[in-house]
Amino acid sequence: MDFNYIKTLPSAIETIKSNYEAFILENYKLDHIGLFHDENNLYAVVNNLTASGLSLQEVNKLYDHNFRTIGVPGPLFVEKQEESFIRVPLRNTFERVNLFGQFFNVSDFNNKMNMSLPLERHPFKVKISWVDNTLKFTFKKRLLNQNSKTLF
């Protein structure tokens, strides 16, 4: 399918990314380079297939039968990245959690905040207001004025 047509469908692009990420997790022993496109096709580049004992046809079949969503085209697996390939960025953590109306729950939010803030800012509490998208941080340690401008 022409990639220019797929680019006009954001939900199709997100589904392709989601399917490919699931494929990466399940087939971690393959040397995944990434998801790419040119003006005509969508490609997934996988190096060193001889080490895994699979052929390109077997990898394509595995993806199509176990990971590809019906009605959404999948990438064509190749072993070599061409000069004309343009990388398709995969989803970040927030996009994975919020995709297709799946909520970003409180545990995920608190975990991400704990990992993002440096240890000298711990312990803290953070409250989020979903109405106006504001965050309110409460720190146990007092912040100096020069340090209060940059939290992360």
Model description:
This protein has 152 residues and is of the alpha+beta class. The protein has two domains: 3-87; 105-148, no CATH class. The chain is built from seven helices and six strands, in the order ααββααββααββα. The strands form two sheets. A four-stranded mixed beta sheet has the order 3-2-1-4. A two-stranded antiparallel ribbon has the order 5-6. The mean pLDDT is 80.
What is the tally of helical segments? 7
Total number of domains: 2
Helical amount:
25-40%
Shape: elongated
- The N- to C-terminal Cα distance equals 43 Å
Largest β sheet strand count, sense and barrel closure: 4 strands, mixed
> Helices and strands, in N-to-C order?
HHEEHHEEHHEEH
What value does the average pLDDT take? 80
Q: What's the total count of β strands?
A: 6
The secondary structure category is alpha+beta
Q: What is the beta-strand fraction?
A: 15-25%
Radius of gyration from the alpha-carbon trace, in angstroms: 21 Å
Strand order of the largest sheet: 3-2-1-4
Low-confidence stretches: none
